[in-house]
């Protein structure tokens, strides 16, 4: 079910245990060969596939396209919310849905920069409703749910998400190839950080002058379909776990 297509009495009539997906993404640079709306388009496709298969079991909120993308602001066209403002925005979305009676909320993320404020938002909201034992507040990024697409399709070379990389370029070639530029001519920019496992503050321009990170020249539409299937299956399994939760216990 899509929240934006329902009238308010239909929303009020839904079981309070209905899982609600809040998709959050971004509008930001994706190198020379990919559109600014890449993150939002890819997450939107994954959510579309999940909703089609579980349309009577899950409620999907409209995709939040504004993200925390300040590390990309050196590149023209990037739109970003101040990190602390973004945190308040996410907290407000969760508050709204809890106020409407929903108990099982999932923030499904499609942009790495949203990771820290998203996790902080679910943590803060849980403290706000600390006396409630019936709330399940989750945050996850779609490519971090355990799928290992390189194992089920050995042609995939990357083993982690980059930026406008083999993975993202492949998925865009699958869903909207007309928006993908000459990815075969793009020079590889390997990911890496010699200070790991410490967390380092960074801006994209110091890692990549062109804006991409990874190996976009390895992309294909066939890889893109495999990645989309892998990630949407991962999300669907998480939704199934939310549905099976007994509403009280710590374990899912």
Kindly report the name of the CATH homologous superfamily: Creatininase
| DSSP strand content | 5-15%
Strand order of the largest sheet: 2-1-3-4
Q: Which regions are unreliable across 5 or more consecutive residues at pLDDT < 50?
A: none
Q: Mind telling me which CATH architecture this is?
A: 3-Layer(aba) Sandwich
* Total discrete domains: 1
Question: How many E-type strands?
Answer: 4
**If you average the pLDDT, what whole number results?**
96
CA radius of gyration is 18 Å
Kindly report how far apart the N and C termini lie: 23 Å
SSE string, helices as H and strands as E: HEHEHEHEHHHH
What overall geometry do the principal axes of the alpha carbons give? globular
The major pleated sheet works out as:
4 strands, parallel
CATH topology (fold) name:
Rossmann fold
Note down, in words, how this protein is organized:
The chain is of the alpha/beta class. It has a single domain (3-244), classed as 3-Layer(aba) Sandwich (Rossmann fold), CATH 3.40.50.10310. It contains eight helices and four strands; from the N terminus they run H-E-H-E-H-E-H-E-H-H-H-H. It has helices at residues 8-12, 38-53, 83-99, 115-128, 149-152, 166-175, 204-207, 221-244, and strands at 20-24, 59-60, 104-109, 136-141. Strands 2-1-3-4 form a four-stranded parallel beta sheet, with helices on both faces. Helix 2 links the parallel strand 1 (20-24) and strand 2 (59-60). The radius of gyration is 18 Å and the shape is globular. The two termini are 23 Å apart. The relative contact order is 0.18.
């Amino acid at each position: 079910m899509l929240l934006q297509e329902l009238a308010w009495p239909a929303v009020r009539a839904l079981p309070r245990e209905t899982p609600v997906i809040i998709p959050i993404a971004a509008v930001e640079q994706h190198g020379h060969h990919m559109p600014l709306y890449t993150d939002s388009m890819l997450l939107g496709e994954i959510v579309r596939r999940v909703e089609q298969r579980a349309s009577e079991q899950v409620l999907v909120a409209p995709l939040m396209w504004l993200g925390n993308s300040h590390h990309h602001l050196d590149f023209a066209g990037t739109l970003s919310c101040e990190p602390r403002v973004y945190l308040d925005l996410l907290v407000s979305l969760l508050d709204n849905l809890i106020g409407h009676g929903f108990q099982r909320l999932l923030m499904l993320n499609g942009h790495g920069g949203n990771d820290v404020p998203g996790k902080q938002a679910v943590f803060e909201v849980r403290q706000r409703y600390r006396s409630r034992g019936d709330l399940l507040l989750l945050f996850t990024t779609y490519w971090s749910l355990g799928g290992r697409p390189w194992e089920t399709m050995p042609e995939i070379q990357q083993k982690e998400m980059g930026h406008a990389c083999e993975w993202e370029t492949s998925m865009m070639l699958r869903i909207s190839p007309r928006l993908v530029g000459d990815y075969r001519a793009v020079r590889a920019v390997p990911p890496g950080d010699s200070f790991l496992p410490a967390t380092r503050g960074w801006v994209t321009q110091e890692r990549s002058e062109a804006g991409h990170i990874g190996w976009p020249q390895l992309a294909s539409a066939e890889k893109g379909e495999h990645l989309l299937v892998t990630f949407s299956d991962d999300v669907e399994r998480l939704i199934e776990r939310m549905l099976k939760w007994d509403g009280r216990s710590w374990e899912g």
